[in-house]
Amino acid sequence: MNNTTDIELMQQVVKGDETALCVLVERYREQLYRLAYGLLGDSAADDAVQETFIRLWTHARRYNARHSLVTWLYTLCCRRCYDELRRRRRHREAMMQMPDDITDVNALEADELLALLRQVSASLPTKQRIVYQLREVEGLSAEETAVVTRMSAEQVKANLWAARTTVKEKLKQYGV
Amino acid sequence: MEYNELITRARRSYVSAPDTDVIMRGMRHRMKRRQQRRQWVVSMALVVLMGASTAFLLQPTATQPRLTLAESVSGQLDKPRNNMPAPLVGYRNSIRNHQIYTLI
Predict the structure, then answer these.
(1) Which chain B residue has the Cα nearest residue A136?
(2) Does B9 touch chain A (CB under 8 A)?
(3) SS3 of A68, please?
(4) Which residues of B touch A176 (CB under 8 A)?
(5) How far apart are CA A91 and CA A96, in angstroms?
(6) pLDDT, tens digit, for every residue of A57-112?
(7) Do residue B13 and residue A114 have CB atoms under 8 angstroms apart?
(8) Beta carbons of A37 and B31 less than 8 Å apart
(9) Torsion, Cα of A154, A155, A156, A161 (10° steps)
(10) How far apart are CA A78 and CA A144, in angstroms?
(11) Do the beta carbons of residue A146 and residue A132 sit within 8 Å?
(12) How many CB atoms lie within 10 A of CB A89?
């Protein structure tokens, strides 16, 4: 099963095969969790990942093999994260405070840097934040990001440019 | 540290995702709760529908045809004088005198 392609696994999932679903969960849980963690934080990332795989299970017939499965999964996960981020803004949750106890960025571990980026990008508008996470942190291409976010390539570039500018400004206080 | 270096290091970060078993268990629990919620909503909708249908079927039906206002008053006007309510006596006379039959 582990050598089976994504398309073959999705064909099994459409038929209701839970084993195929387990393989897909094992394959993509790290990537999706990392994306959701970067946008939402720890506890909400669990929910987002579970909801994404539930959507994959219940809407497997909607998968179009024109794009890769990981792109489709990113799309589902992003939509979930986008709804959660909008809900948080609607309820006027307090914006994350910028960490003021960091003195030396060079001494931070990689996951601490990721957490710092998440806090710094928390003040960005939702669309910019998602584009930034996908392009900058997850390393998706502009085309893939456009497919995932349903934006045009120009919109992705514009949002990324604006997000980078804001993040770089905020990181200046840490000597970056 | 340069910005690009920070991004490169952040990309290498490892965030430990929950195990597959944990995710699958969580998914099954959510789907079961959703199914129970759906069943509850359908049951409530059926109860409301049945209640409304029963109330409609049990309402009393009219044994006599309903009269219009004109018909009911003219009925009163045709009564013998001693059975007619007092305010209508003078009214009956004015109607007959002026031959006004339209009351609406």
Answers:
(1) B7
(2) yes
(3) coil
(4) 1-3, 6
(5) 14
(6) 999 999 988 889 999 999 999 999 988 888 877 654 444 455 556 666 676 777 77
(7) yes
(8) no
(9) 90
(10) 13
(11) no
(12) 12
